[in-house]
């Protein structure tokens, strides 16, 4: 005779909900937004349902996200001018700076997170100015990039960004940004570090969306090796904690759920998972081919991030997931 029957507690939706360990809420989602200098909406072909927005469109998107219960957005800028140093990243009237001001004016209670990098703004697509090594190879000048990233962070905070999110994968960037923010009177502005960021093949659609594909080489010399293992991940996270990070991030999400769990167990800072563009595009392609149920697949994926230890999730599914959780 069976003495244990786990199915009893799964018999109805109400019973399943009664003892659920993992719960999703729109407040846990961070909605990514691409903002461009031109006019109108520009659909991104590799990311069905996602577009580049002009300033009025970005404000409308922010209002929509807020109306669905989402309380945070992260901004990525597409400038109309690029140069070797990515000067539009730290320009006082750059696209992210103007978008942050416009969104905070329209939605003062919404948390605006500014992605802080140079790759969308440089004419070579790398995350800092280039220099030559002693052997004549071109590489990113790490320390020169720190100065420009610090300028970018201060200009974004001055424009009203609530959180600075450095994604450049430069050694020492959190310390440089934290020091610059403090010196400029923004000690209250937290830093959300892309602490554990891999040189991943899942970024392809984003690079098309942001126009940030490197014109030469790749980012493997400064982003993390996918086969690097847990020690490299923990070292990168520890360095950012020591330098003053307020949040840690693991990017991409799905291929690195094990890393997410290890980072969660090792540090007590809030932890963000980035459900990246390639993960989004794969689901969309499978749904369009009739292979997957989009609602079930997306919500299951988001639950996986939470179960692995994420406190919040950056996801291009944010608007739809918020609607589904509201029963729409």
UniProtKB/TrEMBL annotation:
Its EC number is 4.2.1.24. 5-aminolevulinate 2 binds at residues 277, 316. The active site is at 197 (schiff-base intermediate with substrate), 251 (schiff-base intermediate with substrate). The keyword Lyase applies. One of its GO terms (biological process) is heme biosynthetic process. Belongs to the ALAD family. NCBIfam families: PRK09283.1. This is Delta-aminolevulinic acid dehydratase.
